[in-house]
Write a structure and sequence with these properties.
The protein has about 475 residues and is mainly α. The protein folds into two domains: about 1-75, no CATH class; about 85-470, no CATH class. The protein has 20 helices and no strands.
């Protein structure tokens, strides 16, 4: 039997297991999201397309299991009352279904692929809040999850100091067969990908991980005791950003740092002591990164200073939709029409000939081209609405841990308003994960409202208790 056949059979078993163990399936899928690229590049290079959908099998099974248990009364979680958000999501999904049949598309498979890109991970908004039963369980998971950044960072360091011809610097889909591995301009250092297939996915992971680490540290008031590995993970994450050569994550962290300080430090109790510990911790991390990653810092600074496209990179997401509106019209050329893998499901048709020469790179422009002005407004209305909800909850929730979760969600949702949520799978998963964590924080905070004394005492000792249990 062929390897591909065995993987398909295993996928059926994974789907069945995920239905029965949907809470564990969500957690495993989030881990697989990190390891997927490594499996595609080095373990199953002949079945990269099947491995690409592996995490989706876990997610789909988890969704089915969640619905089954909820219908059977085993899940009693009810989402918060936000009718405007749910209505907007529902209308966007209906429009997405209709767009599958857009006559401008070459076939239905392209439309189905596009619908998946837009909506497959949206259910995380409703499923994630039911995955974790309490604060301690969630805190332990987040603390352990961010520590994965340490081995991923070690791999990135190895890639950085390895030649472009090394097997560990290969991309998925055999890009190195054509002699192309991205480097820092004229430098011989490669732009690392870690365990991910390409640089873009690794950059999205690094940004999401950095914000999750800030959440864990913020929940523990940036104490050093019990958090040395978490500080190490933050250092490896920042070092990974430099070695990836991606300027976006670094710029975004710099932009949101004042908001983080205001929401997670200045407004909390003992702000002066927390700020001092945070400043000391970040100072030590920065010194370590400079000392151990001097070559990476030089390469990154060289690339950043040599780039003349930064102004256009920041302005093009705002300009592109308006420039493309006349060609896209109210309904666009069809959902999935610009998707990066659309050519794979249109054999015999010249790639992207259905776009009639219309080429666009930024996500805002691609969404306008695919689903037109109506779809564009619905997608970005939801994104802006989620940002507003997250900000309100970060100011309203009762406990430090819950506010830290809401603040993390606000920061990630904010920087992804114009980000690659649809066409970058990694960013898409993390986007809806953070949205789900926001709803989870609301749900857990409601327990504080029903039993304020007991819950407040539990959360007050949460970090230390969780670390001891871990």
């Amino acid at each position: 039997m062929s390897l591909r056949f065995l993987i398909v059979v295993a996928g059926g078993g994974v789907l069945a297991w995920s239905v029965l163990n949907w809470r564990q399936a969500i957690r495993f899928a989030l881990i697989l999201l990190i390891a997927e690229g490594a499996l595609r590049k080095w373990v199953f290079p002949g079945a990269q397309d099947l491995i690409y959908f592996a995490k989706d099998v876990f997610f789909l099974g988890a969704y089915a299991g969640f619905l089954r248990d909820r219908a059977g009364g085993q899940v009693r979680y009810h989402p918060p009352a936000m009718p405007v958000l749910y209505f907007a999501l529902g209308m966007s999904a209906i429009l997405g279904v209709l767009e599958i049949f857009n006559p401008n598309l070459p076939n239905l498979l392209v439309g189905i692929l596009g619908f998946k890109a837009y909506f497959l991970y949206v259910p995380l908004l409703f499923v994630v809040p039911a995955v974790f039963d309490g604060d301690a369980e969630l805190y332990r998971f987040l603390r352990r999850y961010v520590l994965i950044a340490i081995p991923v960072g070690v791999l990135a360091v190895t890639q950085f100091f390895s030649p472009t011809t090394s097997v560990i610097n290969s991309y998925a889909w055999g890009a190195t067969e054509f002699g192309y591995v991205a480097t820092f301009g004229t430098s011989s250092y490669v732009r690392v990908t870690g365990t991910f297939s390409f640089i873009s996915g690794y950059a999205s992971y690094l940004l999401a991980t950095a914000i999750l680490i800030l959440t864990v540290l913020g929940a523990s008031s940036w104490r050093f005791r019990g958090n040395l590995l978490t500080f190490t993970a933050l250092g490896m994450t920042l070092l990974g950003m430099l070695m990836s050569g991606s300027r976006g994550p670094v710029a975004m962290l710099a932009l949101i740092s004042p908001l983080y300080w205001w929401l997670a430090v200045a407004r909390e109790g003992q702000a002066g002591a927390v700020f001092g510990r945070a400043l000391l911790g970040l100072g030590l991390i920065a010194a370590g990164v400079v000392y151990l990653g001097g070559d990476a810092l030089d390469a990154f600074v060289g690339r950043a200073s040599a780039g003349t496209d930064l102004p256009s990179r920041f302005s093009s997401p705002l300009k592109a939709p308006f420039l493309l509106l006349p060609q896209a019209g109210p309904l666009g050329l069809g959902i999935g029409s610009t998707h990066q893998t659309a050519a794979a499901v249109t054999p015999g048709i010249p790639p992207y000939s259905w776009l009639h020469g219309l080429a666009v790179e930024v996500e805002t422009g691609r969404i306008m081209v695919e689903i037109g002005a109506v779809g564009f407004l619905s997608v970005y209305f939801v994104r802006l609405l989620l940002v507003g909800i997250a900000l309100i909850q970060s100011l309203r929730l009762r406990t430090r841990f819950h506010r830290a979760l809401a603040t993390a969600s606000f920061l990630f949702l904010l920087i992804q308003v114009l980000g690659g949520v649809v066409f970058d799978v990694t960013a898409g998963v993390y986007y809806w994960l953070f949205a789900g964590l926001l709803f989870l924080a609301i749900r857990l905070d409601q327990k504080v409202a029903t039993a304020p004394r007991k819950a407040a005492a539990t959360v007050a000792v949460l970090p230390a208790a969780a670390e001891t249990a871990a």
